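Follow-up to my post from last week.
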Amino acid sequence: MQALLESLRTIVGDDGVLTDAHDLVTYEKGWRYGAGRAAAAVRPATPQAVADVLAACHKAGVRVQPMGANTGLVGASNPDASGAMVVLSLERLSRTIDVQPVDGVALVDAGVTLSALNEALAPHGLMFPIDLGADPQLGGMIATNTGGSRLVRYGDVRANLLGLEVALADGTLVSRLTRLRKDNTGLDLKQLFVGTSGLFGVITRAVVRVTPRPRQRVATLACARDGEAVLQLLATLQAHVGELLTAYEVVSKEALGAVLRHGSYERNPFQGEPPAYAVLIELSTALAPEVLHLDAALEHTLGLHLEGPHSGGIDDVLVGRADDFWHLRHQVSESLREEGAVIGLDLSVPRSRLAEFTEVIRARLAAEFPGVRVADFGHWGDGGTHLNLVHDRALGGADPAGFKARLQTLVYDLCVGSFDGSYSAEHCVGPHNLAAYQRHTSDTVKAVCSALRDTLDPQRRLGTFDLG
Amino acid sequence: MQALLESLRTIVGDDGVLTDAHDLVTYEKGWRYGAGRAAAAVRPATPQAVADVLAACHKAGVRVQPMGANTGLVGASNPDASGAMVVLSLERLSRTIDVQPVDGVALVDAGVTLSALNEALAPHGLMFPIDLGADPQLGGMIATNTGGSRLVRYGDVRANLLGLEVALADGTLVSRLTRLRKDNTGLDLKQLFVGTSGLFGVITRAVVRVTPRPRQRVATLACARDGEAVLQLLATLQAHVGELLTAYEVVSKEALGAVLRHGSYERNPFQGEPPAYAVLIELSTALAPEVLHLDAALEHTLGLHLEGPHSGGIDDVLVGRADDFWHLRHQVSESLREEGAVIGLDLSVPRSRLAEFTEVIRARLAAEFPGVRVADFGHWGDGGTHLNLVHDRALGGADPAGFKARLQTLVYDLCVGSFDGSYSAEHCVGPHNLAAYQRHTSDTVKAVCSALRDTLDPQRRLGTFDLG
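User reply:
Got it. Predicted complex:
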C-alpha cells in the first residue's frame, strides 16, 4: 500500500492523495445509506490521471471505489468496511465544460456538477433538462441514470447522453466522445455504463444533449379527490397540451398533513384539510407570449377538463400557488421524520395502476402492519412514486432492521410481482437494495453482467458489490 | 436436415415450413443488397414457437437467419451462400397489438408492421412516431434502431422502446415486457438487442411508447443559398419554436435537378433553377387552433429570421408547397439512377459541420474522382445526410466493385476520421458495411461483443456475420 500511495502521489500530486483519518471521513460515508473505511482517497484532475490511478491500483491488486458528489441513495459510492479500498474521487475532474450551441451539446468532465453545467449553459440560452433536488456530478448522474421531476418531457439521463469516455479497471481509457445524434454502427457501448453504478468502469467525460431554455413557464395546483382523478387529469393534459407538459408532481394528503403540522411555511394554500392529492402541473414552451399565451393555454385545457366527464374528481384549482407547492414538497421528508421512523421507497408501476397500487398497499399494511402509514409523493406522469412508510419507532421492537426488511419485502414483492413495477425507479442499484436486485433480476441479466465484468474488470476491482 | 424439418413442421405446422426453391426466392435476397441460399424458411406465429424453432435448430446444429419485413439496406436479413441456413421469418408473428392508452404504450408482436401498428393506434388518437419511407416490422426496426424523418422531435426507436422479449439462440425466451417509463435496476438488457442486427437474439415482442397524434401540422419550403444558411435557419427554429419542430429535411440542388429532369411531377415549385438547398420545415402540436395558430407561429418565426442577421442566406419561402417537396423528395433515388451508377451512403456528422463536410467531399471527389457527382439529401436537424455518389457506369472500368470500394473508403475515412462522423447513421450494420465496421470500431467494443456472443450464442448460430 505504501508503494502504491507513492505511485498515486506521482500521478496526482501530494495534495491529491488523502490518508489522514480526519480527511477521509467524508469519503467513507454515503449520503443516506452506507459507511465503510478507506485506505486513501485519490483525486485526479484529468481523464488520463484517472486512468493512471486505476492502472496503478490494478498493478498493486488494490480495489477501488469511484465516488462522484456522493449524493446517491443506495450506498453505491462509499468503500466497504475492509479499510483496504482506495476511494477514487472525481471532484477535481471538473475543468472542462465545452458548450457547442449549434450542435446542441456540451462536453463535460465527469466531476462537473449539475449546477455548474447549468451555469455554463445559461448564457447560451440552454440547459441540461434533468431536474433534481440534489446537486450531483455528471459522471454520477450517468452511472445512476437519474430521473427527476421533468422526465415526463425530457426523459432520463440515458435519453440525453450522446458520447462517453470511461476508464476501465486496468487503466484502459475507452473514449467515444461523439456529438452525433444518429450513429447506428452496432452495439452502443455507452449503454452498459448507464445505470450500472460504476461497476464496469469509471466515467471520465461525457457529451450530453442540451436543450433551449423555455421562454415561458407556468404552473398551477389542482386538488384531486383520489388517485383515479389524478390519472384522468393527466390524460386530458397529454391529449391537449402534449409536448408542453414538463412536470406532473403529486403529493398525498398524508405527506401534506405532516408538512402542515411540522414544516415552516407562510401560507397554507388549502382551505382547511389538504386534498387527497395535490397536483402540480407545469407547462413550458420555447414560443414567445405574442405567439402563444401559455397561461391561457393552461386555463383553456383545465376548462375542458372541468367541463368534461371527469370534472367531479377535481375539487379545486389554485392558480398562482405553484411556489407554495414546491415549498411544501421539499419539506416532506424532514416533516415525516418528526412523526416517526421513515422507510423511503423509490418505486414505479405502470401509471395506469398507480392509484390502485397505492390503495392496495394501504390496505395490505393496515391488515398486516397496523400502525404503519403510507405518506406518498411522486412523479405520476411517469409512474414514479416515493412511498414513505411511517411508523412509531417502538413498532420495530427488538429487531428494527428485521421489521424494516419484512416491510420492504412485502411492498417490493407486491410492486414487482403483482403490479409489474420496479423496486428502484430512479435511485439505481447498490448495497442498499441488493437483496431486491438478487430476488427480482433474471438469470440472463446476471449472466450477461458476469460476462461483462469478466471482460471489463476480471479481478472485480471496482465497487463493493456485483450485478452477476 | 430432414429430421429438423420434421421437428419444425411439428412446431409451426406444414404450411409454416417452406422448402421449395420457388417459395424460397423472397427469403433469400435482401431488399437492396445481399443474396444467398436457404435450406428452408420457417414461419412461427407465437413467441414460444419462435423459441421452439430456435431450440430445434440449436439441437440440430443448424444456423439461423432471422428476417423481418426484409426492408433493411445492409444485407443483414438474408442467409449466406451456404444453402445450409434456416430463415426464421417473423411474418406470421403479428397477432398482438395491445394498445394501452393510459400508459401511452403498445405491446406488439415483432412481426407487426409499422403501418399495422399505426392503424391500430389511430382510433385512440395515438401514433408510433418513427416516420419511414419503408414499412418494416417492429422487430426489425428495433434490431436496426431505425431513425427517419421525425427523429429531431421524437428520437430513434431506442428512445421509444420500453420493454422487450427475445428468444436466444438456444431457445431460451427472455421476457421483460415492461410498461415502466422509469426502472433503474442495473443493466438495461434490452439495449444490447437494439441496433445489433439480431445477432444476440431474435426479438419476439416489444412494448413501445406511443405518442398523441398532433392536432395541427404545418409545413413550408425554404430556399437556402448554401449549407451554412440551412444551419442558421435551423438555429432560429430551435430557439423560437423548439418543441414544435418535427421535421427539417433538406434536398440539394443536384438531387432536385435529377428529379426535375427525370421525375414525374405536376408543378415545379421553383422558379427556374432549384436552390442550392430546398428545406422542408414541419411543425406540429397537440394544441388546438383556438389556443395556438400554428401557421401564424411558423410565419412569425420565419419573419424573425428574415429580419435577422442571417436573412441573406434564404432566397425564398414557398408557402403551401410542402406536398410538392415530399413528392420530389421521394423520387430522388430513382431519378439519380437515370443519370448513372449511384452509390448511396448513409452518413452523419455533427450538424455544425454538415455544410463544411459536404463541401470538402465535393472538392476531394472533384480532385481525385473527376466525373463523380454528389447528390445529397438528408435530415439536417440531426446531422444525417444521404450522400449519393453518381457517376457514369463506364468510370468504374474493368473493376466497378473495386472503384466503388475506393470511393466508399475515401468518404468513410473523411467522415469518421476528419469530421467525427458515422459511416452508418440509420441503416445499422450488416455484411454490406462490415469492412467499415471492422475498420472504425474500437477493440473494446469488439471484445464486449465477443463476450456477449459467447454468453448468448456461443455456437454463433444467429446471422451471417459477427461484431466481435
